[in-house]
Design brief:
Blueprint (H helix, E strand, L loop, with lengths): L33 E9 L9 E11 L21 H5 L7 E13 L2 E17 L2 E17 L19 E17 L2 E8 L4 E2 L11 E2 L2 E8 L1 E2 L4 E12 L6 E11 L3 E8 L3 E10 L3 E10 L10 E10 L13
């Protein structure tokens, strides 16, 4: 029996709504501080060779002059620091640069992929409350194939290769994006793996393996349910040219209470759904956890997906207890 299989080549994340920077380099330097994120994702627990992903990201502004002048500029005792008063006085950032770095390690079956990139963005004020940023990320991708991990490991299988060795290929990696953001909404477009490459580890004369571009479009809107509670619905559309399911759609919602606690959910069409919870700890760090449940036939063989993310706010001298522009 012969079966053709294809899927995305970039990792899937549930908590990208907290760190769109991992998908779109245009967010580089969007905040008043250096934003650090560390994340680990264990997908489809219980299935041997299932995806395991970890990443480290860091980015900060350069030449940003709209920092608050005092430690209490936006904090009134007894009021939510992200309540009505804050959003009514929201002002677009002055034009500035951003610089950052991302490293991602993803292991699935016989394939391990490590990517590292340097990110740059320029943020431009279009109006008193609206910004547009454009960014790109350039780096390398190292793809490794471990023939010895094949089960069953049948000698002479032309689709697996003949030697129990690790084959490694290094390719340039280029990503780019745009991000439009204001007090009430954001819209983003990005592309990853822009430079396509052939990727064959064996002499098997079957369909060629290729690294292909992945495209992302995302949008979100902020609604105030009260002075202490914000609700943030958002959506992401993913487009992969070489995939049988070329278009994938995610719908997300996040409820945030008083800059302190948030709850969220995500629904991925034809795939599954996720629940998320997080906590902002003063103005130093935050933590988020997501649990995914798949609705495909795989749900009979796995115990769900776990994703943990920890963030640090470095140089946050002015008491921002959560992101000001990524909400």
């Amino acid at each position: 029996m012969v079966v053709a299989v294809n899927a995305q080549q970039r990792p899937h994340y549930s908590q990208y709504i907290l760190n769109n920077y991992i998908v779109n380099p245009a967010l580089t330097g969007i905040e008043n501080y250096t934003d650090v994120k560390i994340s680990g994702r264990d997908q489809w627990v219980g299935i041997s060779g299932a995806p395991q992903t970890a990443y480290f990201s860091i980015h900060g502004p350069i030449g940003k002059k709209d920092l608050k002048t005092t430690a209490t500029s936006f904090r009134v005792p007894g009021e939510n620091p992200r309540g009505n008063a804050y959003w009514q006085n929201y002002a677009a950032s002055q034009s500035h640069h951003g610089l950052g770095f991302i490293a991602v390690n993803d292991r699935t079956g016989l394939i391990s992929t490590f990517t590292a990139s340097v990110n740059y963005a320029y943020h431009l004020g279009l109006s008193p409350t609206l910004n547009l940023s454009a960014g790109f990320a350039g780096g390398i991708g190292k793809i490794s194939y471990d023939r010895a991990k094949a089960t069953p490991n049948i000698a002479g299988d032309p689709a697996l290769g003949n030697r129990n060795t690790v084959f490694t290929k290094v390719r340039p990696d280029l990503n780019a994006g745009l991000w439009l953001y204001s007090a009430d909404y954001f819209i983003g477009l990005s592309a990853q793996q822009i430079i396509p490459h052939d990727l064959n580890f064996t002499n098997y004369e079957g369909p060629e393996n290729k690294l292909v571009p992945h495209y992302f479009a995302t949008a979100g809107y902020r609604l105030l349910l009260g002075d202490d509670i914000n609700v943030l619905p958002s959506a992401m559309v993913k487009y992969i040219t070489a995939s049988a399911e070329k278009v994938q759609l995610d719908l997300n919602v996040k409820f945030q209470y008083a800059d302190l606690l948030w709850l969220g959910g995500s629904f991925r069409f034809k795939e599954g759904y996720a629940g998320m919870v997080g906590l902002n700890v003063v103005n130093k760090f935050n933590v988020g956890y997501a649990y995914d449940h798949t609705t495909t036939g795989l749900n009979r063989f796995n115990k769900g997906t776990h994703e943990l993310m920890i963030g640090f706010l470095l140089g946050n001298r002015y008491g921002d207890t959560c992101p000001r522009n990524i909400w």
